[in-house]
Design a protein that fits this description.
Blueprint lengths: L9 H11 L3 H25 L17
Helix pairs in contact: 1-2
Length: 65
Protein backbone atom coordinates (compact mmCIF):
# COMPACT_ATOMS: atom_id res chain seq x y z
CA UNK A 1 0.00 0.00 0.00
CA UNK A 2 1.12 3.59 -0.51
CA UNK A 3 2.82 5.36 2.37
CA UNK A 4 0.44 8.29 2.18
CA UNK A 5 -3.08 8.65 0.86
CA UNK A 6 -4.85 11.97 0.37
CA UNK A 7 -8.33 11.77 1.83
CA UNK A 8 -11.07 14.25 1.10
CA UNK A 9 -13.83 13.09 3.42
CA UNK A 10 -14.78 10.69 6.20
CA UNK A 11 -16.06 8.08 3.75
CA UNK A 12 -12.65 7.83 2.08
CA UNK A 13 -11.00 7.62 5.49
CA UNK A 14 -13.30 4.78 6.53
CA UNK A 15 -12.74 2.99 3.21
CA UNK A 16 -8.97 3.18 3.73
CA UNK A 17 -9.29 1.99 7.34
CA UNK A 18 -11.43 -0.94 6.20
CA UNK A 19 -8.82 -1.89 3.59
CA UNK A 20 -6.11 -1.83 6.27
CA UNK A 21 -8.09 -3.72 8.93
CA UNK A 22 -6.01 -6.76 9.88
CA UNK A 23 -8.29 -8.48 12.38
CA UNK A 24 -12.02 -8.72 13.18
CA UNK A 25 -11.79 -6.14 15.98
CA UNK A 26 -10.44 -3.54 13.57
CA UNK A 27 -13.16 -4.35 11.05
CA UNK A 28 -15.83 -4.08 13.77
CA UNK A 29 -14.46 -0.69 14.83
CA UNK A 30 -14.55 0.55 11.23
CA UNK A 31 -18.16 -0.60 10.81
CA UNK A 32 -19.09 1.22 14.03
CA UNK A 33 -17.38 4.40 12.82
CA UNK A 34 -19.13 4.10 9.45
CA UNK A 35 -22.53 3.94 11.21
CA UNK A 36 -21.52 6.88 13.42
CA UNK A 37 -20.47 8.88 10.36
CA UNK A 38 -23.82 8.15 8.75
CA UNK A 39 -25.67 9.29 11.87
CA UNK A 40 -23.65 12.51 12.10
CA UNK A 41 -24.18 13.19 8.41
CA UNK A 42 -27.91 12.65 8.91
CA UNK A 43 -27.93 15.10 11.80
CA UNK A 44 -26.07 17.68 9.74
CA UNK A 45 -28.65 17.33 6.96
CA UNK A 46 -31.49 17.62 9.49
CA UNK A 47 -29.98 20.76 10.98
CA UNK A 48 -29.76 22.39 7.55
CA UNK A 49 -33.38 21.71 6.73
CA UNK A 50 -35.96 24.37 7.53
CA UNK A 51 -37.98 23.68 10.67
CA UNK A 52 -41.60 22.81 10.15
CA UNK A 53 -43.98 25.42 11.55
CA UNK A 54 -45.22 24.94 15.09
CA UNK A 55 -48.65 23.34 15.18
CA UNK A 56 -51.51 25.77 15.59
CA UNK A 57 -53.50 25.00 18.74
CA UNK A 58 -57.08 24.04 18.04
CA UNK A 59 -59.60 25.27 20.60
CA UNK A 60 -61.43 22.46 22.34
CA UNK A 61 -65.05 23.15 23.26
CA UNK A 62 -65.70 23.09 26.99
CA UNK A 63 -67.42 19.95 28.23
CA UNK A 64 -71.07 20.42 29.15
CA UNK A 65 -72.00 19.55 32.67
Amino acid sequence: PPDRVELTDATELLDAAEDLAVDPEHATAVRFLRRLDGAVTGLAIDRGAPRPPDPVPVPVPAARS
